[in-house]
## 1
Amino acid sequence: MKRLFILAATLAATLGAAVAQAQPQNAPAVKPEDFTFTVVKENPVTSIKNQSRSGTCWCFSALSFLESESIKALGIKDPALYPDLSEMFVVRKAYYDRSLKYVRLDGKLQYGAGSDFGDVLDVAKTYGLVPQSAYSGLQYGYDLPVQAELDAALKGYVDAIVKNPNRKLTAVWPKGVDGILDAYMGEIPETFTVNGINYTPESYRDALGLNLDDYVGITSFTHHPFYTTFAIEVQDNWRWTQSWNVPLDEFMAIIDNAIEKGYTVAWGGDVSEAGFTRNGLAILVDTEAAVTAGSDQERWVGRDNAPKPEAPKAVKEIDVNQENRQLWFDEKTSTDDHGMHLYGTAKDQNGNKYYLIKNSWGETGAYKGVWYMSENFVKGKTLNIVVNKNAIPKDIRKKLNIQ
């Protein structure tokens, strides 16, 4: 996304090419001290992670979603036994697949760190999954992902191959991609041990209790017919993953039913709004976002020392409907900026509904890595979600002919 999703949203923009979104000076500030939240429903999630200086929120959010799916499927009660999946295993496999497609399409494909939820599902189906303990993907010496150099090295290499200097591609050029990935991320183990059991990536995936065919992408736009699928038209949806298109009221009903039934949701959408703050709030205030320069967390919410305007006593949100949601997508004020993990609901002191969102920027902000996202923000700024098909209300499943 720019972690689309499918994306999945998603789903960030290509690292180094993306622009940052900072709160404009005339925007109403929203501050945690102005709110008191009461959790209504909270489903199990794993610990907060940190994507650091990498454009890989699509992977962090989708794997967090799959970890919750595994917890539910296996009935895991003890948080000490929760799975901790390797994001960089998926990122590495996705880099390789994307490189092959980029060359096949003569470079006419978005190439960078950003991607979508469908990328994670495809990698898991094709290659399996591994735990963080078996593969950190940080061969280059950092404790957290710092990938600008890796991204540049890969892009330079595949661009050289696209030029086809011999006028006929050799069969060995993909080994060069693997060589770069080995150097920066390390070789992937063929087998590894978890709790005394030896696994391959494929057998470990299967042991997590996941049925990867159960996951469904959902969106809500009017430029395609409802109750059909389409590939959301954003650059990071490079696998051209399909999402089901439903009316907005049904889109929100799917999210609410998922949470009520004990499921969680992979969320991809726009975080360039003034009301998306670094302090754990996402509120659809009625103002446009401004653009400045930055890096993943700074990219979307600005720096710690950025000047903040005085907060009004009350912040009025935009009322969202199908029409303005579509307008924002068409005019590109709703974009696939970021992917996160939606796992519960809450209410503020005035009874307004919010969703609990697990981010991947470390334990930052007033809520230690969790964001409270208003219902209007979700309605207006979500590009797409991924859910377990069993989390979809039966009447909507029937319309989609999902068995």
Note: The first strand starts at residue 20 and ends at 22.
## 2
Amino acid sequence: MMEIIKRADMVTSLRLKARLSEEADFVISPNTMGLHWSDFDQFETLIEKGKDAARISLDQLKTSINQKQTIFSKMKEWLS
């Protein structure tokens, strides 16, 4: 019974993550190497993987932000 509860929780969690990712403007997905967020002994490894993914995604994020600028922000920039 506990195994069924764990699996149901995992399925729910995966669906929620997928839905939130679809709704997000930008998602950075680090390679967690199959580690779980609660693997506290691997904390530094997970942080480094997150930093690496952020560095790689930075240019893409900047481009995405620039594309989403509104006409008002462009006018503000022009008037400055």
Note: The CA atoms of residues 32 and 73 lie 37 Å apart.
## 3
Amino acid sequence: ILEALGYIHNFVGKGHIDKEKRIMSYITPSEAFIAEFCSTDEEVQSAIAAYNASLQTIILRNEYGKAIDYQDNKNIKNARKIVEKLNKINELYDIRDGSGNVMTNIYSRIFNKDFEHGGRYFHSDALKIKHKKSKARLDITINGEQVVEIDFSNLHYRIASLMEQISMENLPLDVYMDILPERLQNDEHRELIKLSINILFNSKTADSADRAINVEIRKFTVQGWNFDKSLSTGKKVREYIYSMTPDFLSCYCRDDSFGLALQNADSYLAQRVIEKFVDEMKPILPIHDSFVVRMSDLGFLENAMGDSFREEFGIASLIPLKMSWKDANVLQESKILA
């Protein structure tokens, strides 16, 4: 009814078996609604504050993806406080996508089964942008300023090495490329290896991993990608990764949701980075293990990510990062150590 009257815009979400690919349904007020019911800026800000206060910023889901009750403790209360600060600060800024549409970046942290699994930040408009080919997140502006995105290089491998007491110092800067023989070191084979390793971290059995990798191979083949015969099936890819990463065999195809444990670790790492930004009242858009900020906050983000990793995992090493931005609409990338 409200939509028919022109009072709201209704955005219908999309379900998906992969929780990370689910898109939330939501509504936003139209200009007609604001003109009739929110005649002053104070009323608008009051409505926004009331909406933000009503949100569940820490959500625990059971194995079927349904939100369940939980008991608060000191850590959960602190995590909720940081998400609430993040949402409040981001809403103070004019954040727009590449088409000039105003974005709302209200985050929630979603845990799976218990607070030792999952915990990543979801629900922001920034996460809904289709980015893979167009790199459209880099078209976002914050108060009219260009943005830059920095992500941790091969983050789950680095966290897994620390969790499994494997020396992180021996990991190359680009694990996914280094696994490949020199003749196959290109973007297509690297992407296959990267996706396959993520599947191995998240699969419970080798057979299910093989099937999932086969699905990815078929998708790439439809797009015109060609893979070497040695990596032409899920089983071949899995066995090749096994042979090249023997120290990590204990991390693959486990029944105890090792992938969710890795996500839990990277979510607390992200919490540290975010906390440094909200303490300085700076806007930041977390995208799981990467962060989008104003170009003027580039140096602050580099230091925040490096320091947060060292603080979270108790090490002294420099941390490899990848920086992405656009110059005259052309993608630019740079690898750095923080």
Note: The first strand starts at residue 8 and ends at 11.
